[in-house]
Structures are given as C-alpha cells and as structure tokens.
Amino acid sequence: MEQTQQLQRWRLILGQESDKRLSGMNMPSLNEEQDLMDKALASIYNKSENGGFGNGGTGAGHGPSNPQISRWLGDVRTLFDKDLVKVIQNDAMNRCGLKQLIFEPELLENTEPDINLASTILTLKEMIPKRSKDSVRAFIRKIVEEINRLLEQDIRRAVTAAVNKRAHSPIPSAAALDYKMTISRNLKHYSPELKTIVPEHFYFFDRASKTAANKWTVILDIDQSGSMGESVIYSSVVSCILASMSALKTRIVAFDTSIVDLTEKSADPVDLLYGFQLGGGTDIDKSVVYCQQFIENPKKTLFFLISDLMEGGNRAAFVRRMEEMKSSGVTVVCLLALADKGKPYYDEQMAQKLSGFGIPCFACNPQRLPELLERVLKGQDLGEFVKSLEGKKK
Predict the structure, then answer these.
(1) Would you give the DSSP letter of residue 25?
(2) Same structural domain, 186 and 325
(3) What gap in Å lies between CA 73 and CA 40, rounded to an integer?
(4) Which of 54, 75, 96 is the last residue of a domain?
(5) Do residues 179 and 84 share a domain?
(6) pLDDT less than 70: residues of the chain
(7) Distance from C-alpha of 270 to C-alpha of 64, rounded to nearest angstrom
(8) Per-residue pLDDT tens for 132-166?
(9) Is residue 109 in a domain?
(10) Does residue 104 sit within a domain?
(11) Do 158 and 241 have their domain in common?
(12) Three-state DSSP class for 381?
C-alpha cells in the first residue's frame, strides 16, 4: 500500500508525461480525488502544448479539456492542505499573468471587463494588496453595471407582469384600476361616434396582494464552490434586482460547507459579491435546511438552487428534502449554471434524480432569465422553455 501511494504521489508531481515511465512499475490508476488534483495541478504547471489555461488542452488529466482557472483556484481548497493551497495560488498568479494585474492597478484600470477574469480575481481577493483594492473593486463594478444594464429592465418587466396578472380583484377601486388590461380587453367596444372606448368590464389590482402575507418569496440558494464563479457574479446582480422590488420578498444565501446569509448586502451587488468566498467544499443539504425556515406560504415561494449539484454532504437527505419541498407546493428550480457560454459542469446522476421528482434542472443563459421568472411566477410549465435552451446548445 505504501509503495502504491508513493507511485501515485510521483505521478501527481510528474504529470501525464510520466505515464509511460511509470507504467512499467505497475503504477495503479489515480482515484477520483487524485484525478481532480491532477487536473488542478496540470492547469497551472503544465506548459506543454496540450496543457495550461487558455488553450483548451487536456493537461495531465484523463477527462475533458482543462476547466477555467477560476474554477480550479477555488476547488484546490478542497483538494489540498492549506499550506499547499497558498503555494498553488501564488504560482497560479505568477504563471497565469494575474500577479501583474493585481499588483499594478493601472493595468487593471485599462483592462476590458471580463467575467472570467472577475471571478478569478474574486477567488484571490484576500491576496490583493491595499494599493490595488480600489482598482479591483472598480473593475468588478464595471462587470456588474454591464450585467445590470443587460437584465434589469427585462427582469422588472417580467416580474411585474407575472405578479400583476395574478393580482386582480373584483372589488372596484379607482386607485387600483389596471388601465392597460382594461383598455386592451375593451378595444372591441370602441365607439366611432364618441371616439372613445366604452368599457363593458373594468379590471382592478388586488390591494391585498401587496401585503406581506401575499407577496411572493424568492429564495436564491447559491453554491459558492470554485466551479460556480461566473454563476455567482450573475446571481449577485439578479439577486439585488429582485431584492429591490417591493412585490417580492427576496432571501439570498451562499453556501459551501458553511452557510452565509447575504440578504442584508443586497443593496449593492458589488458588496454582495465581496460577501462570497469562492472555493471550498459543498454541503447543499445543510443550506436547504437553512432556507426552509423562510418558507411561510409554500404556494407563494420560489426556490432557486444555483449549484453544480456536486454534493459533499448527505446526498440522500438532500434529495429527500428537495422532494419534500416540491411536494409541499414550493416552486423549485435548479440552475446548474447561470452563464452565457460553455457546457455546465455538474453531477448528472443527481440532476436526473431531482428531475424525476419534477424539479427542472438546467443551465440558463442570463438573458433568458427574465422569461424564466415570468413563466415560473405565472405557474407555467417549464418543459418547453428547457427544450428551447437545449435546442440552442445543439
């Protein structure tokens, strides 16, 4: 056993190029955790044509092409001891060109906003020197403002349309008159003689729907493990938009193996982003338990789990809890990624189990999120929506 472990350690140190030399020594295959370590190390240290970040090679692993650096800079925290993590992160900064950006703020000021770079910098934010903190924050804000411009109006329109449609009342009130629906539904009653519409029926918003007890509760349970960097950035902006809408009660929770309630930081998406600690393990079940306390009216609750489903906690308990939440009337949606490109990295077996309970699990382009929100709040089936997303990927 000791010789086997030594050979596996040498294999991790030497990389994939040593496979031929070690094969003659009956070198056993790397286990799943060691294979992840191999990919992480290759992404940073492999300088051959097939390795390293940014070139799409296979590196030293046995799986698909190298993941983005932001993912592995986070995930190394779960794979290696703390002392080794510091060494690997420092080497990543030097070898991947990050050190110059972080330590020379004038370079970052002239760098075009890039969401992958932003997620990487957020992963390393504890290492940023004081003189660069303002520049880094300004760079992150550029990203946030771009996303906000892209999504805010559409999200507000989608939520307002969905909530108002469900909020009509038979009780007449001039202050609560829905002018838009009243006009559109009575266009056929236009009088040419009077040159105006003579409504046969008026539509009024239900004032009671604006009370706290009747508001929709939206819970965003966001995985902050290293693989979710881009999704975390989009989720932060979306969370702040939703939290600013009085028609909703929004709760924002971040988790790895611990849980952080970030709801109080929702006034500013940059502050919210700085509350995340990208990297670490994953205990989804624990986070779901925490979020359940905020479900007051299951039928008026929307629970978004934004995660790759790589559960490191109690997998059976997590699946059972999600099924129970769905059965109670909560609208449960699992977003495997909230990103604008690339195939998501996720636990397919877990996604299939949740899908079997009627919980949709899919990756979503952020620009389609307003449509998703409107469909969910209107109680529409997401089957066609998910098919349209999968069709575009093909």
Answers:
(1) T
(2) no
(3) 8
(4) 96
(5) no
(6) 1, 23-24, 46-78, 82, 86, 89-90, 92-94, 96-101, 110, 164-176, 204-214, 341-342, 391-394
(7) 33
(8) 888 889 989 999 999 999 999 999 999 888 876 54
(9) no
(10) no
(11) yes
(12) coil
